[in-house]
User: Fold these one by one.
Assistant:
Number 1:
Amino acid sequence: MLNRLLGLLIVVASLGVQAQGTVYRCPGPPVLYTDALSAKEANEKGCRTIEGTPITVVQTVKPRTAAGAGAVAASGDGARSAEGRVDAGQQRARDDERRRVLQSELRQAEERLGASQKEFNAGQGERRGDERNYQKYLDRMAELKDNIARYEADVQALKREIAKLP
């Protein structure tokens, strides 16, 4: 929000110093406040004078740098070094936790895949009692086939993610 405001307002005056010439407010995105135009240029651009109107200069807050953020984190919990890197032991623990979660998800996805493949039975799944209408059976088989394709894709994606881990 602050950067947008500053983008819209370009002020030539600095804190505590009044502009020596006429200050113009020029329309259009971004709105421009300037004293660098001649009266003719200002008229051509549709600018109007703002004499007697106070000008407020907003100073920006400097963004935190990566080194500054690392130094703050290092003083806080000891998890990061002065360069902003995570401690090797903590990173290893994070990687182990991620591997454990991914392997758990992989087991669940493989179980869902196996159950769906068993029920699908190569397109020859058993009809249920509530499927007196043959179309209901065909719809269920189509849904099972779609689920199998999705579960296979999930299993492959999880295996790729696990392979990426150190």
Number 2:
Amino acid sequence: MEEPVDASDTPFARIGGEPAIHALVERFYDLMELEPGYAALRAVHGSTLEQARERLFWFLCGWMGGPQHYTERFGHPRLRMRHMHAPIGIVERDQWLACMAQAMAETGVPEDLRQRLETSFFQTADWMRNVAT
């Protein structure tokens, strides 16, 4: 028999729900545009970030255990397939991770949750690589 899931212990609840995820995503993309150290990452996103902001917010809500906004709109995320148009190598992976770590720190994500998310983000970001370097 499965134990019931405690919804208050999900990353979604611990981070502060939709308002906190929205703030995190906004800061992430703001940093990507502002910081020269994230230039390679910014370059793979095209001319505008509006759609990326929206989709990452929807995705993270569900991925963290909250409302499944992304899957309700688009079905299974199929992250790797949906990102094959963009060259993602070690540089882009590392810049994505650094930008997200900075955004989490600046938006007040609790340290223990940040560490947990950073581990999961690394696994996903590394799996997303589609070029060798």
Number 3:
Amino acid sequence: MGRFAGYIVVAALALGIGYFVATRVQPELQAQNTGVATTTPQSVQITTANVNEETSVYTIDVQYPKFGISAIDAKVGKIVNDTIAEFKTLPPNPPGMSSPQNELTVRYESPYVGPDVVSFKLVISQYTGGAHPNSLFSGLNFDRISGKQLLQDDAFKMIKLTAQQVSVAVSAQLKERLGETFFAEGANSNPENFSSFLISAGKVTFIFQPYQVAPYSAGPQEVSFERKR
């Protein structure tokens, strides 16, 4: 696969689910994907919803969080359901392939519930044959009170930096980390390069997809900035 071909596939998947991507804050909550309800200090309960389906054409194994906040749970549910619906439109694998079924796996990581923000990482993996699955690491962030989805402009405001300033800082860190394998185009000042991020109590972490800033073998990359608000 060419240098950016895999990233283009992942970017297309990102477009399919959308770019979903302050003062005093309380310690962040870390919860495991056990399916067991976890009560946060703010009396929000995280549970795990499951979707499992198998046909001769595909298998679906999905887990995603529910926070008991109706506006946020509705948005998360729509994102997941849209992802499943889009996956089901993929053509079946040709006879004789090593993987006779298309496979969709969804998991979540790093749930955080603060006084102002609810945030988590959704990991979407599609395997339709080939050397490896295509994976998307999508940070989903919501204003806890209004349920509004927070986008990259909101993230820039939280760290009080522009897209250009973030690009300079990210590029320096990734070049030091990755050396000659760093793909500069994936971290330039185009705001869409910073559409996937996570918010926690004290930082904003930008997530870069496989193939976006490095070869697939390097995996996804993350760079964090201190929250200023």
Number 4:
Amino acid sequence: MDLSIFLTYLAACGAAAATGAMFSPGEWYDGLKKPDWTPPRWVFPTAWTTLYLLSAVAAARLSAVEGNAQVMAFWAAQIAFNTLWSPVFFGLRKIKAALVPMAGLWLSVVLLTLWAFPLDIWSGLMLVPYVIWVSAAGALNLSVVRLNPGESG
């Protein structure tokens, strides 16, 4: 794995993480009804840090594999949708509209993972936690929409 390539993908992940930091949960989010299974706040930055590192490593590995064009396009799509979600949900407070980038994120992460496995099994395995996390995040977003119909914007 080329370190400079890894650092480039990590920088893209850092940009996505920055939107989470710029548009963080606050009193507004605390006031929303959430399902009982909502993780505590500290879980989110811990999980995202881990997922961003795994995703950057997987991308760096996949970038060196022949026939990687489609899988790298899925990687680009997922980081774009990832970057968009926090500004829509937390910045604009459009919790229903945030389901659109969440759906794009979920689909692109699932496709990224499925396409990664045949090219590099280790990359595919590194992406499985991401699929699980965005599935839970999507369910949480949908649950928050359902529990807060007046906030759906």
